[in-house]
Amino acid sequence: MSDAPVLVVGAGPAGLGAALALAQAGVPVVLTEQRDAIGGAIHRQPASPQVPKVLRPARHARSFAMLAAGLAAAGGRIDLRTSTVFLGLDGADNALIDDRRRQRVEALSPAGIILATGAVEKVHPFPGWELPGVMTAGGAQVLLKETGRAPDGPVLVAGSGPLLLAVAAQLAAAGNPPVAVLERGRPWRRPTALAAMLASPANVAEGVGYAARLLRHGVPYVTGAAVTAVRTQGDDLDVMVRHGAAERTYRVRHLLVHDGLRAGASTGITETRDGPVPVLLAGDGREILGADAAVADGRRAAAEMLALLGRGAASAGDEQTLGAARRFQAALARLCEAPPPSPPPETLVCRCEGLRVADLDHLRPDASMRELRLVGRFGMGPCQGRFCGASVAALRPDADPSLKASAVPRWPVRPVSLASLAGFGDPAARTNPRIHQDTEDR
Amino acid sequence: MTGTFFWQGRRVPFGEGQTLAAALLAAGLRDLGGPDGRPARIFCGIGACQACAVTVEGLGVVEACLTPAVDGMRLGPAMTGDDHV
């Protein structure tokens, strides 16, 4: 039986949950994190102790403290590598990781891989979404947690989903309440979805707290309103909004957009259980269940990995937690469900390659995903379709998704410097599978 | 570490532990596009969208939202080589 470590990618709640469960079962773990600190987007810590704390639920702070304490207690069983970016799998099932601090690419030969790389935000494209000043609401939230500082000048928050409320409340608490929150859906018209959410009181209380904060700051929460276009106006943005039959323009400095979260997009790699190196997904990168359930889903993935490696039972007893989270997320999805306005021809779809809706319209109506990529070049840039892939799929709902350009994304899934790669062929850079022994000696 | 890095030669101050993205935004530098015309700016904050990729002298292309600022770093738009750093 091999003592090779299990590689866990991403030190957010799911990755930490998985790593701790594996370590408790006596399995060595290499835990990589692209940032310089653990926590992931949800538990992004202030850049320094001087940074003001951002409004957030106490249960998140408690959960993170428990995970951090568990990591400290695990000692040498978990080899944590921060500032290390997962580049993908090579043809021989090696996991390639880029230590950005030491500028060195390494190939690990793990016993199994758990990808806990989180969700990616959905952003339905509209003309001007690519302009400076337009950010995702989640991206702005991560920056706010890091700096404690809200962006200067008027901010508009728009799109769909509960994150709009959270970010708006956090901006208000940080001293810059948004001019408005525009929700495309009409949640008040979905009483059954609202009622179903009451089964998760902690989440409801969190939402009510955010709403109360917005009310106190006089931030309007406008439902049934959608952004149709954005234009640059000097240093500002003119945001065109459709609200029922009415149109209005907001002049702001920043537009924060968000249309929900998407799983499976951060690496594009899918689960495999029958290969020599099983690959499992965990957390919001597998299924959008939220931060609380992500820890449980990490444990679930760890238990399944242990079973696949012949080292334990397949269940960690977290099914009830995951089921409740699944029902809550389904209710949330129903609550805010509303189709986005269809983007006009000039709308940029694929930022990396500079391709617009009109470019997509020029391709054969029955083109497969493979053709859209290889002929149309959609999703062929640095993001490899992680961001634009969903937009392309929404605009071409009939394109056969099984005919992708390649089933497994080619490495590197992220940029890597030639200098870092140069040392890669050097046998000294290839890590011994029994890597845990090195870490235990430290 | 607190210090200064350079965006296309312009001095950008940063605070302890800050990423390049946080410091660039605080300095009002929102457009990270280069001469190739590809729109670039800080967008997703989690290293996924690649819209904030920048070229850092000696490091190559990295995501500004993930990269801790270091005193004296020289950076510029991605994919343009060191001429624009």
From TrEMBL, chain A:
Keyword Oxidoreductase listed: yes
Name of the protein in question: NADPH-dependent 2,4-dienoyl-CoA reductase/sulfur reductase-like enzyme
Record GO terms (molecular function): oxidoreductase activity
Source organism per UniProt: Chelatococcus caeni
This protein's record includes keyword Oxidoreductase: yes
Source taxon at top rank: Bacteria
Region named Disordered: 423-442
InterPro entries noted in UniProt: BFD-like_2Fe2S-bd_dom_sf (IPR041854), FAD/NAD-bd_sf (IPR036188), FAD/NAD-binding_dom (IPR023753), Metab_Enz_Cyan_OpOx_G3PDH (IPR051691)
Ranges where the FAD/NAD(P)-binding domain occurs: 6-265
PANTHER family: ANAEROBIC GLYCEROL-3-PHOSPHATE DEHYDROGENASE SUBUNIT B
UniProt keyword list: Oxidoreductase
Pfam families (alphabetical): Pyr_redox_2
Organism taxonomic ancestry: Bacteria, Pseudomonadati, Pseudomonadota, Alphaproteobacteria, Hyphomicrobiales
From TrEMBL, chain B:
Keywords annotated in UniProt: Oxidoreductase
Keyword Oxidoreductase (UniProt): yes
Annotated signal peptide: none
Gene3D superfamilies in the record: 2Fe-2S iron-sulphur cluster binding domain, sarcosine oxidase, alpha subunit, N-terminal domain
InterPro entries with a match to the protein in the record: 2Fe-2S-bd_N, 2Fe-2S_ferredoxin-like_sf
Entries under Pfam families matching the protein: Fer2_4
GO molecular function: iron-sulfur cluster binding; oxidoreductase activity
Protein's UniProt keywords contain Iron-sulfur: no
Protein name: Ferredoxin
